[in-house]
Amino acid sequence: MTDAPELPPVELIDGIPHVTTEPNELDRAIESLLSGYGPLGVDAERASGFRYGQRAYLVQFHRRGGGTWLIDPIALPDLRSLRDALSETVWILHAASQDVPCLREVGLQPPEIFDTEMAARLLGRERVGLGPLVEFELGLHLAKGHGAADWSQRPIPDDWRRYAALDVEVLPDLYERILPELVAAGKEQWEREESEAVRTASPPPAREDPWRRTSGLHKVRGKRDLATVRSLWWSRDELAQLRDTSPGRILPDAALVAAVNAHPPDMEALAALPEFRRRGAARNLSRWWRAIEDARGLPELELPDTSLPSDGPPPPRLWRDKDPAAADRLDRTKAALAQLSETHNVPVENLITPDYVRRLAWRPPEPLTEATVEAALSERGARAWQIQMVSGPLLGALAGSDPD
């Protein structure tokens, strides 16, 4: 067996762009992009592993004939002028749902989106990351490696700027390659509806108990110990916001769980835990100890429940014992969707959100008709193309019919 030939690399179109930081430079960028033609490649870089939140620290644009522009949204936090100037062209993004929220924060609301990742999913591509997609569609190797870097760093190194520029310069070529495939497969409208849902999505509501997402929380037992995790989590979050630092860099989740399960009798015992010997954790030791003491002093009525209240069905693994008929319905819906997935070469999770299906299987609408199934899916947020495709098979599965 011989190794596959090495693919030629994607090359920069016009060298490594500098970072635009001044209003007059932004005006030139807008003028240049307006002079170009075709859709606009757009990307954003964050620093979520280093800074607090998901804000953009670099936004990138490329348009044929208009060049590639890297813009610093910290120095230029209001980019509505760019949005307004480019409001009549398609914006190409890869994995748009990751970037649209942070683009909005700096005034960049795309007028229309084409999502190359979603398009690849709808075409049944096995690997939908930007690098693999460039290889499959364009026969080129896209150098990666800086996506998780600290993009808040200034100045931004040359190799990072090269990486950022390449990520947008390949997007128009991908668009031209993928769009005809979508059209030929009858899936162009599907991609439009998916992208429009991302473009117009409301910001998610604030989580009522964000501390419950602590990694390793399943190792914690009892209300008092959960209260201690909660107290430590909020103390860490407050400090992270104050310092504009990722909470995990101040104190990892593993340290929160270790502090709770060790039940240290005093601050010296807390300091002896391996997770609290790191310089960052040790520097704020008195803060963590106060949080632990606060939780230990709470009255019983203020302790959190051991389970998170939910309006959804229980985990599917419990269905067979709780409601065998519902478990049977779920099995039939899975079989029906698997058949649809194979027929249309689309992953099941892109045909319809799995949570919507679980809710239908647990408590089907009454009366059970195609119209009520469609209404239930629409209420949850399913797109028109999804509803049209899955409502009939789901109705049959819920009513007791096995897929043919």
Q: Report the CATH C-level class of the largest domain.
A: Alpha Beta
Strand order of the largest sheet: 1-4-3-2-5-6
How many domains is the backbone divided into? 3
Helix/strand order: EHEEEHEHEHHHHHHHHHHHHHHHHH
What is the CATH topology classification name of the largest domain? Nucleotidyltransferase, domain 5
- Distance linking N and C termini: 42 Å
Overall mean pLDDT stands at 95
List the SSEs and their pairings.
Layout: E1 19-20, H1 23-35, E2 37-46, E3 56-64, E4 67-71, H2 80-85, E5 91-93, H3 96-105, E6 113-115, H4 116-122, H5 130-138, H6 158-169, H7 171-184, H8 188-200, H9 223-243, H10 247-250, H11 253-262, H12 267-272, H13 279-283, H14 285-296, H15 319-322, H16 324-344, H17 348-351, H18 354-362, H19 370-380, H20 384-399
Parallel strand pairs: 1-4, 2-5, 5-6
Antiparallel strand pairs: 2-3, 3-4
Helix pairs in contact: 4-7, 5-7, 9-11, 9-14, 16-18, 16-20, 19-20
Name its key features:
six-stranded mixed sheet, Nucleotidyltransferase, domain 5, alpha/beta, DNA polymerase, domain 1, 404 residues
What do you see in this structure?
The chain is of the alpha/beta class and 404 residues long. The chain folds into three domains: 19-200, Nucleotidyltransferase, domain 5; 210-302, HRDC domain (DNA polymerase, domain 1, Orthogonal Bundle); 316-399, HRDC domain (DNA polymerase, domain 1, Orthogonal Bundle), CATH 1.10.150. Helices cover 51% and strands 8% of the residues. It has 20 helices and six strands. It has helices at residues 23-35, 80-85, 96-105, 116-122, 130-138, 158-169, 171-184, 188-200, 223-243, 247-250, 253-262, 267-272, 279-283, 285-296, 319-322, 324-344, 348-351, 354-362, 370-380, 384-399, and strands at 19-20, 37-46, 56-64, 67-71, 91-93, 113-115. Strands 1-4-3-2-5-6 form a six-stranded mixed beta sheet, sandwiched between helices. Strand 3 (56-64) and strand 4 form a beta hairpin. Helix 4 (116-122) runs parallel beside helix 7 (171-184). The model has no long low-confidence stretch (mean pLDDT 95).
